[in-house]
Amino acid sequence: MEAILLVMEKVGILFVMIAVGFACTKAGMLTHKGIAEITAFLLRIVTPCLIVSSFLSADSGVELPVLGFSVLTAVLAHLLAILLSLLTFRKTEPDRQKTLRFAVIFSNTGFMGMPLVQSVVGDSGVVYASVYIAVFNLFCWTYGYSMMSGGKRASLKTALLNPGVIGLAVGVPIYLLKISLPELILQPVEGFAALNTPLAMVVVGSHIAAIEWKSMFTDWQVYAASALRLIVAPLLFLGAMLLLRPSYPLFVGNVIQAAAPVAANAVLFSVQFGRDARLASKVVALSTLLSIITLPLFTVAAELLA
Question: Domain of 170: which CATH number?
Fold first, then answer.
């Protein structure tokens, strides 16, 4: 019971930050353009800095073979979610189907998963979470891009040169070669990394503020997609991790990432490719709200079973 309360407290802290973003948006302090700019800053500057920072402060016991194993577990999480998505929403109109299936597959690994991993597991968990984010980006910009665009393929450059992969490309050599960065570089990197949690939660809160609440709670497919993302997909992955039996930080960190709510990319891709952007916004908002119940449960379950 004490463990559950501790995790709920950590999730509650995140939701206080989400509430700030919600309130600021409702009050007109944050606009759609402003949130788009904050999101771009988070993705392109803060995320790589957070990944590099996690390797700088990580326990030296995290070895390359274990990092490789963490790649395999992250790939497995996405493959299981893809399989689950293909079994659902088969009779749904194509535009809605693509949006809902995208929501089932891709979790909010950076904005929701990473801050909670950082709070619960610490720096070693953030290293594995960084690997998970890189795998998420690869799947998102290959499989997700192709699905939402109706068959188009993102360029190899787009798939590989994303913030998650760039952060790993810088962070892993620094970690393995035990490179010490000068304070002139180290302090800005750590400073930008510290912005991840509060800014990410503000962005999530702003997206929730833009939703028409009545329509969100009356669309049964929004509930279905949320349940698949928050309960079924992480349950499948939790079962797989019990068979694989990785180390504690990898086990707990990856389960948290897999149990995170729907990725904000669902909205971005829906807008870009003319899918149902309102539906995407609803499922992102509802799954984020419901995750205050499901995320602590999966976090505690992972801690007890690891």
Answer: 1.20.1530
Report pLDDT digits (tens) over 126-177: 788 888 888 887 888 788 888 888 766 666 676 677 676 788 788 888 877 8
Question: What domain range includes position 185?
Answer: 2-305
Residue 141: closest CA among 127, 129, 158, 125? 158
What stretches of the chain show up as alpha helix (H) in DSSP? 2-26, 32-41, 47-56, 64-86, 94-105, 114-120, 123-139, 145-149, 156-160, 163-176, 183-193, 196-209, 213-217, 220-227, 233-244, 248-258, 265-272, 277-305
Give me the pLDDT at residue 28, please: 93
Place of tokens 């802290």: 13
State the distance between the two ends of the chain, measured CA to CA, in whole angstroms.
Answer: 17
Per the prediction, the chain carries an average pLDDT of 84
Query: How many CA atoms, within 13 angstroms, populate the side-chain half-sphere of residue 220?
Result: 2
Whole-number Å distance between alpha carbons of 3 and 221 = 33
- In this structure, the number of other CB atoms found within 10 A of the CB of residue 101 comes to 26
263 contacts 203 by C-beta, under 8 angstroms:
no
47, two tokens: 């995320």
What values do phi and psi take at 252, rounded to 5? -65, -45
Structure tokens at 174: 């620094």
Asked if 203 and 111 count as a contact pair (C-beta separation under 8 A), the reply is yes
Number of domains in the chain: 1
CB of 204 within 8 A of CB of 288? yes
Report the distance separating Cα 82 and Cα 228, nearest Å. 11
pLDDT at 252: 92
**How does pLDDT run across 195-212, given as a tens digit for each residue?**
887 887 788 788 778 777
